[in-house]
Model the fold of this input.
Amino acid sequence: MKKLAAGNWKMNGTKASLAEVEALLAAHPGPTCEMLLCPPATLISQMAALAADSALMVGAQDCHAKPQGAHTGDISVAMLKDAGASHVILGHSERRTDHGETDAQVRAKAEAVVDAGLVAIVCIGETESERDAGQTLAVIGSQIDGSIPMAATAANLVVAYEPVWAIGTGRTPTLAEIAEVHSFLRGRLRGLIGEEAEGVRILYGGSVKPSNATDIFAVPHVDGALVGGASLKAADFGAIVAALSAA
Ligand code: PGA
Done:
C-alpha cells in the first residue's frame, strides 16, 4: 500500500497561492508516498496544469451527487474530473456542520465519485462531547457504515479519521487514542468490504504539522494524513510529505 499525504486548502487560496505548489514540486519531485492537494474549485484546473507530469495529484473538496441539472452553485464530479481532479474529499466535518450533510448524502456523493472513476476521501470523526461521553467508536462506526460507497475498494476509497475537536485547534488525540480508532476502523472496513479493507488508506487528520507527523505516522493503521492549515505552506506540507515518505 502506498501511503497518502493529502492537503485540504479549504476556502483559502487565489492564483498567487500557486507559487506554493511550484515550491513544493521543486523541493519534493519524487516522494515515495502519494501527494495530493485539494484547493478551492476555482484553482483545480490551474493547479492540475502545474502538476502535470509531476508526483502531485489534485483533488476537490466536495461535489454534487447528481451528474448535472438545476443546482445553482454546485459542481458535478464530471466537471471536477474535466478540470483535472482525481480525488474528492467528502463529508468533511465542516460540510457536515455548515451544510448539514448527512451520512446518506455523503454516501450518494461518494457513489457518484466512484462511478466516475475518481477516488472518494470519506471523512468521519467524533465531536469533543461525544469523545467525553465515551461514544467515539460508536459514532465513527455508524458514520463509516452510512457514508462509504457500496462498491468501495482499496483503489477507490480513502477514509480520513478527523476528530472534530482536533481540526484547526492545535490539539490532537494521544497516539494510543489514534491507534485505537484506526485499528477499529480497519476491522469495521473488513466487516463491510472484506479483504479490500486491507488496502484502503486510513488517514489521520486534525492539527497534523511537521512537529507531530513522524510520531503519528508510526501509529499502526495510519496510512497517511489529511492536512488542513499546514498544507497551505510548501515548507510545512513538504516536511509532512518527507516524514510520510520516511515512515
Ligand atoms: P487542520 O485541518 O490540519 O487545519 O487541523 C484538518 C482538516 O480539516 O482536514
